[in-house]
Write the structure tokens for this entry.
Amino acid sequence: MDPDGKFPRSYVIVYILPIELEREETSLPNPGQKIPGYSYGTTEVKTSQVSLSDLESLKVSAGFTEQDWQFLRLAGEVLADQTEKIVNQWRSGIIAGIPHLARHSRTLEGDPIPEYLAKSNLRFQQWIMDTCTKPYDQDWLNYQQEIALRHTAAKKNQTDEVHSTSQVPLSDIIAFVAVMNETIKPYLAAKGHAAEDIEKMHLAWCKSMQLQMALWVPVYIDTSRTTSGL
């Protein structure tokens, strides 16, 4: 959504970046290559405060079914070679032109941080694939907490050792989920699947976004309490 409340054809995403001229073309590394700052499934990631039982309850609340899982896997196959384009559209296409969002990936003086952009682009691409292909198990649950923390005052800027804003407001993150959901659809349709299958892939993606945001909210609440001394 743009500042006038209208949805343009290109949209913004949660991970904030600099202006279009600062765009970095970054593709996922070959299998076996390490993505900077990506610690999925490692001992560096703390155990989530949300239990697997709680996650199962959230799936029921979101209506996330086995069919959704099957079509999310199919979405992973469709999106696998498109993640760079998706991230470039999300990050360089719109958010660069929205100052109150773009500031979160710049220095406090407003200067771009190209190295941060390049590294975080790779993690962003991997997040798309993790959303579609990783089992929603303890490791996935733990990393949801880790990603959320990296947007809060508790851990933002630490992964890449940059100096930027202290956190990304949760309100902006939740608001742009709608943007993410709408802009992913053309990529899901790019491989010529039947319209019904595209709709099912898209629905599964949207449900996953709801689940992930539901997991991020308590992280923000806990961090707010900690930083405020409550």
